[in-house]
Design brief:
The protein is α+β, with helices and mostly antiparallel strands and 265 residues long. Helix content is 27%, strand content 31%. It has helices at residues 5-21, 28-31, 37-53, 68-74, 125-131, 153-158, 208-220; strands at residues 58-64, 80-85, 89-91, 94-97, 105-114, 132-142, 163-168, 173-174, 186-191, 194-200, 231-233, 241-242, 248-253, 257-264. The protein binds 2-oxoadipic acid and magnesium ion (MG). Residues 62, 64-66, 70, 74, 107, 140, 142, 144, 156, 161-162, 235-236 line the site of 2-oxoadipic acid.
């Protein structure tokens, strides 16, 4: 049984309310067992429209499930994308409150800021690197709207790839000034001084620029493109770590610098 057009809007509203009211909901695929990935992107599109209609602005996009660590942790084996909004932005060194979330997790990522548009299909890593102006260290707070943070591929796509908050380090590094390539950049995630996870840029599709290329090519199938000035999160390098009140979170990336935030009640 295929999903009827009216359902896309209904599920999008449900997901938006769950985010707004900070409560978990049952997976859409418990209702619609054969929900396809194609259909789930239509639900995501409705969700994006709802947010835009309520006055929010898109500030970038993100790839998710681009490293083996993330795929294994979430038990979903395909990459996904979602959109980042102005209300999700947290300045580095800023504070978030646990009451803003359902069951938040944090992951360390490499962000790209484009200097030129990128339009698929067939965008390559080399093209991404020449279109990129800056790279920056990032921490992404993900907060699945689904019960127990468990989902299948179509569920998480519909839920805007669990997007919740994004923290970008205060230093933007011009990409051409990097002394080692992004795949060799080490990343460490500390919470309250304790190392929770570490890895290197290569964990993300062998090179994080490959992730941005995949994004441009996935968007091309929807008639969309990446634009100059866009911020792109390329995906968690390591598994995501649960957040609790009192946490001070620091992401340290070789050459790119630090990015941090703290969590209060
Ligand atoms: C989906 C979002 C994954 C990433 O960086 O891999 C993601 C999830 O794990 O909830 O943002
Ligand atoms: Mg992420």
């Amino acid at each position: 049984m295929a999903v009827k057009v009216r359902h896309y809007r209904k599920f999008a509203e449900l997901l938006n309310e769950a985010e707004y009211e900070k409560r978990e909901i049952t997976r859409i695929t418990e209702d619609i067992l054969d929900l396809s990935v194609e259909e789930s992107y239509k639900i995501q599109k409705e969700l994006i429209k709802i947010k835009i209609n309520s006055g929010h602005r898109i500030i970038g996009s993100k790839m998710g499930l681009t490293s083996q660590a993330k795929m294994t942790q979430m038990n979903v084996k395909e990459p996904i994308y979602g959109y980042l909004f102005d209300y999700m932005f947290v300045p580095s060194g800023g504070v978030v409150h646990l009451s803003e979330f359902i069951h938040p997790k944090v992951e360390v990522e490499i962000a790209f800021i484009l200097g030129e548009d990128l339009e698929g299909p067939n965008v390559t890593r080399t093209q991404v690197l020449s279109a990129t102006k800056y790279v920056a260290p990032a921490l992404e707070i993900i907060d699945s709207r689904y019960k127990d943070f468990k989902f299948t591929l179509p569920d998480v796509v519909a839920d805007n790839a669990s997007s919740s908050r994004v923290v970008i380090g205060s230093t933007l590094t011009p990409i051409h000034t990097l002394k080692i390539d992004l795949d060799l950049i080490g990343a460490a995630l500390y919470i309250n001084g304790e190392l929770k996870a570490c890895g290197a840029g290569a964990a993300v599709f062998n090179h994080p620029a490959n992730s941005a290329a995949v994004l441009a090519n996935m968007l091309a199938r929807k008639g969309e493109r990446l634009k100059a000035g866009d911020m792109i999160l390329t995906g968690g390098i390591t598994e995501a770590i649960n957040l609790t009140a009192g946490d001070t979170v620091i992401g340290q990336l070789d050459q790119l610098g630090d990015v941090s935030f703290s969590v209060k009640e």
